[in-house]
Structure formats: C-alpha cells, structure tokens
Write a structure and sequence with these properties.
mainly beta; three-stranded antiparallel β-sheet; single chain
Length: 104
C-alpha cells in the first residue's frame, strides 16, 4: 500500500480517493483505503505510478504487491453527471430537405 501523500478529496462527497491509471491508460478514481469487496487490483509500479486492473476470470487473485480496491464511482454518494464532449454540445441535428414530389 502506498503512502498517504497521494491522497486527494472527491469534489462531490469529500471522500479520500487516489487517482490511478487503468490498463487502457485512462485515469480512474479509487477509494483510498483497501476494500475486500472491491473488484480492482491496485499496485505502484517502478516509476511510482498507481496502476489498477480489474479482477477478472482470467486473473481473479491478487498478485505480488497488489491490494484490493473499489472504484470511487461505485461508492460516491453524490456522483456528478458525466460531462458531454464539446462536439456533442455544439452539434445540431441535421435535417436534409427533399423535394416533395420525390416522396411517395
């Protein structure tokens, strides 16, 4: 388990969280404390980066220096609504005009 220097607070519920990097390279907030019911395996790699992976059927147990963690999105009592991408906010539905005589 890493030290407490990398603990942050959730903007919504002020719970203690850690930011980790998933296998796909995305950031994910996890609860700062270990959780035996969690579905994530977390570890600190050689560069000091907190990495997480999902405990799956292929790799269902913890390996080496991993500990069990819970994604904060699953435990946050007041989660934020997901943000829309900039393109989807500005895009309008397109209606293409057709000639009225060609519609049957």
């Amino acid at each position: 388990m890493p030290s407490d220097h990398d603990i942050a607070r959730c903007d919504d519920c002020l719970a203690r969280i850690r930011w980790a990097i998933t296998v796909n390279g995305r950031r994910q907030a996890i609860d700062a404390d270990t959780d035996p019911k969690g579905n994530l395996a977390a570890h600190v790699d050689g560069t000091g980066t907190l990495k997480v992976r999902v405990l799956s059927n292929e790799r269902p147990t913890l390996e080496h220096a991993e500990w069990q963690a819970m994604p904060h999105a699953a435990t946050c009592p007041s989660p934020r609504q997901p943000r829309l991408r900039a393109a989807s906010r500005t895009r309008r539905p397109v209606v293409r005009p057709t000639a009225w005589w060609s519609v049957r």
